[in-house]
């Protein structure tokens, strides 16, 4: 059992990064030297997926361009003997991987976006990756970890992590019954509850393995939180019919949909970068060396 198709909802406006995202997709914003969407696609491929399904909108041509072969660029790099760069460009989409683009005609929420993937996904189980949740720093990429769970249980799996209680209003929050280390069965799920109404502080992050039954349920899903058709609400209906698991993945998640999370991802992944990591580390050391002295106005204690 292997997931062959991965869906990437990328039609959002990216308003939190305006004006950077005025003419280009937010998923094209780079973390160090690769766009967010490339990390997501790489993660799907590492989990065994072969077909990438992008749910896109009219402002997202940069995503299609990114995953197209650029023969002119490749020829130029080859002629100049820039082997490493040539490899980096060719690696954007390895051989045997295909891309499908589906337009989401209106922005009606994550659930609506996923439902647009039906013609490409059909009756197969599939993965969903939200590119602005960047997950790194583990022994195995997050979706590959989830794929192992899926192989064992053959059912829907959602990636979850503990978040501060005061942040439950930003996430889908689950109520669970543990069945093993880091693995639970979901008993309840609610989209963006206020902290006093949240059933737990276990939040869904942007990784899902879903059965195709979700499409039928999405068809019937009415607008929910924020007036949008929520994937969370369709998952709640799915739980009534099938087992849905919550998996606490290993790794660090960066919320690259927020400026702070995006900066953290760049700093931490910059520090690990093979080319610039060491130089960046000593730069940061020098920069922060004087921050602890008495002149530090940012201290609150
Ligand atoms: C979406 C989902 C939410 C999930 C979150 C993870 O919300 O609706 O359930 O917890 O992604 O990032 P969004 O961040 O698109 O508002």
Automatic annotation (TrEMBL):
Alphabetized NCBIfam families for the sequence: galU
Q: Which reaction does this enzyme catalyse, per its entry? A: alpha-D-glucose 1-phosphate + UTP + H(+) = UDP-alpha-D-glucose + diphosphate
Q: Could you tell me the keywords of this UniProt record?
A: Nucleotidyltransferase, Transferase
Organism the protein comes from: Salinisphaera shabanensis E1L3A
- Sorted alphabetically, which SUPFAM superfamilies does this protein's record hold? Nucleotide-diphospho-sugar transferases
Q: Which GO terms describe its biological process?
A: UDP-alpha-D-glucose metabolic process
Is this entry keyworded Electron transport? no
- Matching InterPro entries: GalU_uridylyltTrfase_bac/arc, NTP_transferase_dom, Nucleotide-diphossugar_trans
Protein's recorded name = UTP--glucose-1-phosphate uridylyltransferase
Role noted for this protein: May play a role in stationary phase survival.
The encoding gene is galU
Which GO molecular function terms does the record list? UTP:glucose-1-phosphate uridylyltransferase activity
Q: Which family does it belong to?
A: Belongs to the UDPGP type 2 family.
Give the enzyme's EC designation: 2.7.7.9
Q: Please report the stretch or stretches of sequence annotated as the Nucleotidyl transferase domain.
A: 10-268
């Amino acid at each position: 059992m292997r997931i062959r198709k991965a869906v990437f909802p990328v039609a959002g406006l990216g308003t939190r990064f305006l004006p950077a995202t005025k003419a280009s997709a937010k998923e094209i914003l780079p973390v160090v030297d690769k766009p967010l969407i490339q990390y997501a696609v790489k993660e799907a491929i590492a989990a065994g997926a072969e077909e990438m399904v992008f749910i896109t909108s009219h402002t997202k041509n940069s995503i299609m361009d990114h995953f197209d072969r650029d023969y002119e660029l490749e020829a130029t790099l080859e002629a100049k003997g820039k082997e490493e760069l040539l490899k980096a460009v060719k690696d954007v989409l390895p051989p045997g991987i295909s891309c499908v683009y589906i337009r989401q005609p209106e922005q009606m929420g994550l659930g609506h976006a996923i439902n647009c993937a039906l013609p490409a996904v059909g009756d197969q189980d599939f993965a969903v990756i939200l590119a602005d949740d960047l997950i790194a720093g583990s022994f195995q990429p997050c979706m590959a970890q989830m794929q192992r769970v899926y192989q064992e249980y053959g059912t829907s799996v959602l990636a979850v992590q503990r978040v501060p209680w005061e942040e439950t209003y930003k996430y889908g929050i689950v109520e669970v019954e543990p069945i093993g280390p880091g693995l639970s069965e979901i008993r309840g799920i609610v989209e963006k509850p206020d902290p006093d109404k949240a059933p737990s502080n276990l939040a869904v992050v942007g990784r899902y393995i879903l059965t195709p039954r979700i499409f039928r349920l999405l068809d019937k899903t009415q607008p929910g939180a924020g007036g949008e058709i929520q994937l969370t609400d369709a998952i709640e209906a799915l739980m009534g019919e099938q087992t849905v698991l919550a998996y606490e993945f290993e790794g660090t998640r960066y919320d690259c949909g927020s400026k702070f999370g995006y900066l953290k991802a760049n700093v931490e992944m910059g520090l690990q970068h093979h080319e610039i990591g060491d130089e960046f580390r000593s730069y940061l050391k020098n920069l922060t060396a004087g921050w602890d002295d008495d002149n530090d106005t940012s201290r609150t204690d």
